[in-house]
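seq:
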Amino acid sequence: MSVEIKELYKAYEERDEVMQYIINGLTFTINDGEFICVLGKSGCGKSTLLNLIAGYLKPDKGSIELNGEEINGPGADRGVVFQQHALFPWRTVSKNIQFGLNMRHEKNAKEIAKKYIEMVGLQGYENKYPSGLSGGMQQRVGIARALANDPKMLLMDEPLGALDALTRDTMRREIERIWKLTGKMVVFITHSVPEAVYLADRVIILQSGQVAVDQRIELERPRNYSAPEFLAYVKQFEDVITDSALKNVMHE
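struct:
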């Protein structure tokens, strides 16, 4: 199973009668079971890329293929988790996770929800409402809801961005554990370079709507934030992003 992104273009505005492409000829492949982290300065196209893969946006040119079939819109084969978890406040944890299953009339929705509640470590909270959960717990519900539909890939747009540092570190470990259990392809958008190095099989850095870096992380798991090899990757990626930002400032 793979995702093939081929000569992808997406523009949001026209300036002086010239289209301004936020995604500008993007081409790369995501392989079966890979955990991809996408980095880059604000406005480089990270979230746009994720929304194109999710099918929420349509490309102006180029294509995205999942298992050889072109993506033309949203689908249950792609589970999406956003920074704002978007849980239904009037539904319990279990009912939130069952939502997609109920929409397609899945008879075993309650049992499937129970399986993913256990996977994300929320046993005992099945009948709680979102208002009674911490931010980290709410995000676990969002992840469980995305996984309950058994998607082929998981798309995560800065899912930890709103969490405090301690909760964020815990959730990184949880996401890594869940990924190992499920073996799903993951595309994970983040602003945090150490987070990307900790989680990713490959780090992709976007610059001017194109791939500036596509680097495999050759570190054993679990990874040590203070190890010299870990810090070397962090510096490498931070240098690329900082250099990109400085060049943009100089051209403005």
